[in-house]
């Protein structure tokens, strides 16, 4: 157990704990600040100037936490929303460590700290190993699979066990197929569900905080108080009757709305009638054009052969044919 409640740790300068906790910053990675022996914060450039002297330690002040995940498991079982949050947080933290040249050799519930708002923070200080520049690989994914399998087995009474395990498996399959971590998070339903219930807060606490945040908005308290006063008055005196003037205003408003609807319907009817007349006139024009074309074709077919040969088109064709014959057989 890493002692998640301990605010200070002594590490060797240049060690893995010093480099990771002193320099790396991630929402799901537990960080620390270097302090002097008197408890005052040290300058940030002090880290870079330190030589890797193993005889002198560096005092690191860890970020606050309320406990570890194993301690939470002893008090109450986790729900599916908790498992989704743990999976996404650990995957994101391991991916960040891989991008910065570190590897986590092992992972269990004691290596996950919980901050004051219920966010999971990776605190595997004894399992950190330098690995050089690398990508998030199958070994990191195997750590998360093993952790989630253990946690899911300890929380078998979840009502949506089958659906939640299927969604987690789908997320792991996408990552294993090479889908980028951010894209896999966006495709998965785990992301939206994990936001609803972070680890470390119950449903009642979350709802209470939401109500308090709503009530703290400017003007909302006055509106709530006014509505409460109106409800109390209605219970005491019954429904308040409307005045005659207000009743007349309501009737005039309703009559005006009905008149506007009737006027709109009348206008639409007139437009429809006009369109019908235009359609009838267009149909008459089409019929006249068809009759005229039919009469012209009948007149041409009734003409004798000589007249049909004397048409401009026929004469032009004859001239072209004679010119071609002359060009071919002329000496």
Task: Describe it.
This protein has about 325 residues and is mainly α. The chain has a domain at about 10-205: Orthogonal Bundle (Transferase(Phosphotransferase), domain 1). Helices cover about 60% and strands about 10% of the residues. It is built from 13 helices and 8 strands. It has a 3-stranded antiparallel beta sheet with strand order 1-3-2, with helices on one face. A hairpin with a 5-residue loop joins β6 (about 110-115) and β7. The radius of gyration is 42 Å and the shape is flat. Residues about 50-55 and about 195-205 have low confidence and may be disordered.
Summarize the structure.
This protein is mainly α and 331 residues long. Helix content is 60%, strand content 8%. Mean pLDDT is 75; it is low at 48-54 and 196-204.
Topology:
Blueprint: E1 8-11, H1 16-23, E2 32-35, H2 45-49, E3 58-62, E4 67-68, H3 69-75, H4 80-99, E5 102-104, E6 112-114, E7 120-122, E8 128-130, H5 138-154, H6 161-176, H7 181-187, H8 190-196, H9 203-215, H10 220-237, H11 244-302, H12 305-309, H13 312-329
Antiparallel strand pairs: 1-3, 2-3, 4-6, 5-8, 6-7
């Amino acid at each position: 157990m890493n002692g998640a409640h301990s605010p200070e740790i002594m590490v060797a300068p240049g060690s893995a704990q010093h480099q990771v906790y002193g320099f790396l910053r991630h929402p799901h990675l537990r960080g620390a600040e270097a302090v002097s022996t008197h408890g005052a914060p040290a300058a940030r450039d002090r880290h870079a100037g330190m030589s890797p002297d193993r005889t002198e330690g560096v005092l690191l002040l860890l970020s606050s936490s309320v406990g570890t995940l194993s301690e939470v498991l002893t008090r109450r079982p986790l729900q599916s929303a908790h498992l989704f949050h743990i999976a996404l947080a650990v995957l994101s933290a391991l991916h960040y460590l891989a991008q910065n040249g570190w590897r986590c050799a092992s992972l269990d519930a004691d290596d996950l700290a919980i901050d004051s708002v219920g966010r999971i923070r990776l605190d595997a200080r004894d399992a950190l190993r330098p690995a050089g520049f690398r990508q998030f690989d199958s070994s990191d994914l195997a750590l998360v699979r093993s952790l989630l399998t253990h946690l899911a087995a300890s929380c078998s009474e979840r009502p949506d066990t089958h659906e939640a395990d299927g969604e987690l498996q789908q997320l792991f399959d996408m990552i294993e197929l090479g889908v980028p971590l951010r894209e896999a998070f966006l495709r998965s339903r785990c992301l939206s569900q994990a936001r609803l219930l972070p680890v470390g807060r119950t449903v009642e606490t979350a709802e209470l905080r939401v109500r308090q945040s709503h009530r703290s908005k400017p003007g909302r308290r006055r509106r709530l108080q006014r509505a409460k006063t109106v409800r109390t008055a209605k219970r005491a005196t019954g429904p308040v009757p409307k005045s005659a003037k207000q009743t007349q205003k309501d009737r005039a408003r309703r009559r005006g709305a009905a008149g506007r609807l009737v006027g709109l319907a009348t206008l639409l009817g007139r437009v429809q009638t006009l369109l019908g007349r235009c359609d009838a006139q267009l149909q008459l024009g089409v019929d006249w054009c068809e009759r005229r074309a039919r009469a012209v074709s009948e007149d041409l077919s009734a003409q004798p052969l000589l007249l049909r040969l004397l048409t401009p088109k026929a004469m032009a064709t004859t001239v072209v044919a004679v010119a071609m014959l002359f060009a071919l057989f002329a000496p």
